[in-house]
Amino acid sequence: MPSNPYLIIHNNQGNLRLPLVGRHYWSIGRTRDNNIVIPDRWISRNHAMLQITEKGSFYLIDLGSRNGTFLNKQRVSIPVTLEDGDQITIGESEITFYASEIDSKIVHRSQNSHRDSMTSILHVRRLITVLVVDIRDFTILTRSVEETVLSSLIGTWFREAGKIIRNHGSWVDKYIGDALMAVWFHTEEEEEVSKEEILKIVQALHELNQMTQELSSKYPLPFRLKIGAGMNTGYGMVGNTGSGDRPDYTAIGDTVNAAFRLESATKEIGKDLVFGETSYNSLAKIPPAQQCFQNYHITLKGYEEEQQIYASTFDSLELFLIRYFKKSTLGN
Fold it and tell me: Do 204 and 165 meet the contact criterion of CB atoms below 8 Å apart?
């Protein structure tokens, strides 16, 4: 068996082998904008996704498909971890997932080799802004909502979130269980983020919350669906881990790690949003922002020194945007 993980797709066109290398996610659907295209009328345009974690595990995520995604004949309602030999059913197509060799030493060596090859490509230092968005009380939701409802809800949220982020100049870099990460790469000449750039990201964040609230009202849920977010700006190592006509840019480094810690801090201080100092300073160039954020000094998990952060709520963020656009309209 090859050392790299791969899929075997069984359908009326025969058996097709697809290696899972060179990327950190693969979208599956019937249209050409997917990484894995399966021309099956029972498959949605954007049906499902495979996501590889930093530890080399694979998640299977349904993207709110009409006819569902099934793992070993059980419908997938939340992101699930794949194991060697798992059977995935999408439409009329059967897909078998094969991991690396069963020998754990070989698996470990293969995964390290894959990460080493990715690291060798990530060689450009760039100014980036990282946004991490998390669905609140997700575990409680999985225990209290019927499986098909949960599958549709979470899949639709992932799909719509991806559209919003693309509309504002980025894409979802990682889907991680009940969260996602997006990265905005700023131009090489920039030493700081312009107010126009940071405003674009803030607008995406506002729309993500609006979309979440609209979805919440469409499903029979025990409580309203909420999200929290952390944003951080700084330098990171970025590059293309894809190949051919499907580039796959990603970022690594402390800026990325801190963004996840900032998102976790929202729960600690009871706010919806937490921005790192550099992100906030870019936004603070727009005067109404200063009235909508509170300054905190906390020690983020995994860091020894106290950090200065800026926190707000989605209501305050909406008020900021209303004031900004009203002022811009009057100015014109």
Answer: yes
Q: Is the dihedral of CA 275, 230, 157, 166 positive or negative?
A: positive
Q: What are phi and psi of 38, to 5 degrees?
A: -120, 110
What does 91-157 look like in DSSP terms, one character per residue? TTEEEEEE-S-SSHHHHHHHHHHHHHHHHHH--EEEEEEEEEEEETTHHHHHHHS-HHHHHHHHHHH
Rounded CA-CA distance 257/255 in Å is 6
CB 199 within 8 A of CB 207: no
Tell me how crowded residue 35 is: count the other CB atoms within 10 A of its CB: 17
Determine the Cα–Cα distance for residues 167 and 59; give it in Å rounded to an integer.
25
* Residue 193 CB neighbours (<10 A): 23
Rounded CA separation 279/308 (Å): 11
pTM, 2 dp: 0.73
Give me the phi and psi of 316, to 5 degrees please.
-70, -35
Q: What is the pLDDT of residues 237-267, one digit of tens each?
A: 876 555 444 445 677 789 999 999 999 999 9
Contacts of 301 (CB under 8 A, 6+ apart): 261, 264
Query: How remote is the C-alpha of 219 from its chain's centroid?
Result: 22
Query: What value does the mean pLDDT take over residues 194-201?
Result: 90
Instruction: Enumerate the H helices of the chain as residue ranges.
Output: 104-121, 138-144, 147-167, 195-218, 254-269, 277-283, 314-331
SS3 168: coil
Rg (CA), the chain: 21
Report CA-CA distances (Å) from 154 to 43, 48, 60, 157, 175: 18, 12, 13, 5, 12
Instruction: Please answer whether residues 51 and 174 qualify as being in contact, where contact means their C-beta atoms are separated by less than 8 angstroms.
Output: yes
